[in-house]
Design goal:
- With about 325 residues, the protein is α/β, with parallel strands linked by helices.
- Strands 1-2-10-7-8-9 form a 6-stranded mixed β-sheet, with helices on both faces. A 4-stranded parallel β-sheet has the order 5-4-3-6, sandwiched between helices.
- Helix 5 links the parallel strand 3 and strand 4.
- Helix 8 crosses helix 9.
- The termini are far apart.
Amino acid sequence: MTVMTDLDSLPVTPADVDAAAKVLAPVAVRTPLLGLPALDQRLGGRVLFKAEVLQRTGSFKFRGAFNKLSAIPAASRAAGVVAFSSGNHAQGVAHAAQLLQMPATIVMPSDAPAAKRERTAGYGAEVVLYDRAREDREAIARGIAEQRGATLVPPYDDPQIIAGQGTLGREVAEDLAALGLAPDVVAAPASGGGLVAGIAVGVRARFPGAAILTAEPEHYDDHARSLASGRREPHHADTRTLCDALMAQMPGEITFAINHALGVRGVVASEQEIGKAVAFAFNELKLVVEPGGAAALATLLAGRIAARGKTVVIVLSGGNVDAGLFARLIG
């Protein structure tokens, strides 16, 4: 069931997304919507993939990071920015800071994929490692920011971050309209919920009847739980997941407010299904998609998104995966 609400009453509005689109237009990649006729025939619907793996830094996170950093006043830029992330937000902030000639410090877990740590440093950022099991990354980042007078750049629960991610949904809506299509379902991976909240605003501005779905790995189902109950709830995972990008404990306050107001629903995929989705993306779409970025695709292939007779958009949100893990999953 689609819930209707006044988009202009939300913490992030279509006007905010439009403003972010103007900021990002000179720098961000307008990633394509890709089709796969064989899959359409198999599912009996029209499926289009938003290939955000082709974005700068290999994920959607660049959008929100650049929009946020661009809004920092000139007088405050010399002090730099500080962020905390397992990898994709880290790279997005590091590269945005590089383009805007700002110092960046990123607090990353010591067990983050090596490729993500190396690329973050490669964009010129200082990387500070922490123990995911014993230390509080946000507290570490906040302490560094206060000491240096730097701007803290949160990974998802920030209106400018969400508006930047919303440009992805805006592009989806524009490109579908150009094809003469209206989306019945748009599904995207969720960790803190910033991507889905932005997409919901960006898509619903043009297609108010579209159903928006969060996709999560099993046990890390805090959005599915929260959206079903109507209040923010943590997940209860006690094991690691392939999806290092989707391990937030609970939906953000702002992101949940938007997603709940817009009637977003949650779907979940198993680790095995996500691994198969990574292989499917490589073999059929010829794209490198990290496990977290393939969560929505996994739910579609597992039959948890009804596609027959519908137009379905699946967001492939990131492609930053260690070569060893990727080889194992596609092998």
